[in-house]
Amino acid sequence: MTGEVAEDHLNLSLSIGETKKRKRTDYHNYSPFKNLTIAGVLLARNRMLHPTAPTALHHNINGLHLIRLLLFSAAAADRHDSSAAAESLLYLYPHLSLSGDPIQRVAAYFSDVILETILTPSSHLYPSLFPSPSPHEEFSAFTSLYRTSPYLQFAHFTANQAIIEAFEAEEHCNEGSLHVIDFDVSYGLQWPSLIQSLADKAKINKPIKLRITGFGRSEAELKETEARLSGFAKGCRNICFEFNGKNREENKLIDLNLRENSTVVVNSVFNLDMLKSSTLQLIQSLSPSLMILVEKEGSRTVTTSRSFLSRFMESLRYFAAMFDSLDDSHPSDSKERLRIEKNYLGKEIRNAVEINEKEEEEVVLMKYGRFETWKEVMERSGFEGVMMSSRSVSQAKLLLKIQSHCCTMEEHGGGAGFRIYERDDGRAISLGWQDRYLVTATAWRCNSL
Asked: Where are the residues of the annotated region SAW (predicted)?
């Protein structure tokens, strides 16, 4: 799927307004017919999940038409017309596949989001319809994506480079001590490369002290992360490592035991939704040397809408590019790609579209906005952007070369592949796929004014 075609697919103005004029059919409130329609949708979905023959697009159904049907169904679900939404899904599922082309695959996962939405009132009747991946399955998918795509490595390596440079800039007064506060330590995969880099620069008679305060989803995950990182650090000479795990749900910057003469860095990777104004104020009170912000980038300047359709369309644009990029690193019959999409990206899609009634509008604005949007929020909260170094840019470009399958746009004459973008006069670095930004890395310091 080329960038031009993808843009045609996903920047459709559509005639969704026309669908709103459509009169709801009489059987909308006639439950026997409605139940028959849902039963047909579930059967079609089951056939998609368990095909008896290789799936291919029908000769009359192209990718553009699939996306139109998908958005038609999403618009119906948004206005609570479950019958119209189900009708579209009934037609959609036979033309979708979890192992087909990027459009078929991404449409399959977003069709499931619509189906789950219209089944919500009676979801207890379908307890195993949308099973969540087990912790082991999710971890396996995450590590596969980490290994085979520059997506996660770009985020972590760029952040780590900025952290190392902040530490080096204060080397004369930090007594070889670095404290990183990580708002979502997750599996801890960001930190082995930082530990190794610090070990390489440490002197034999002067070890570097590294403390990581990591917020995690559960106590079990935090213990596993601590064991993983501590085990790695033991194999590195001249590193004194300490890990302090905290429950992510609490998200309290208290009892951090900040020490004098230590470089303090706040790290937030794919975690923008947690950075409310109150949290940013607390970060200001810590006076960190640097705050690293790496985030998935939407395409809207302002996103104040909390509607299902708004989130659906924005997320569809983003994940269509993600699914397309995976074709660059995985063959068409790749089981590893299927695991990544099913056990990691599929869950990310559901989280992105799901509307949490308790979610503050400020969080909605930041979570789904463009870089320019969260830049404005950060500046309004008393932070100023820091120049990203030439070393960060060179490292990011080198990453794409190391990932030999990740061809750059220059190598294809500007037609396809991953590319590194320098933005905002050097204050931001983005990883893009074709002509769309996927991840943007920035660094911030507290404004002294």
From this structure: 354-445
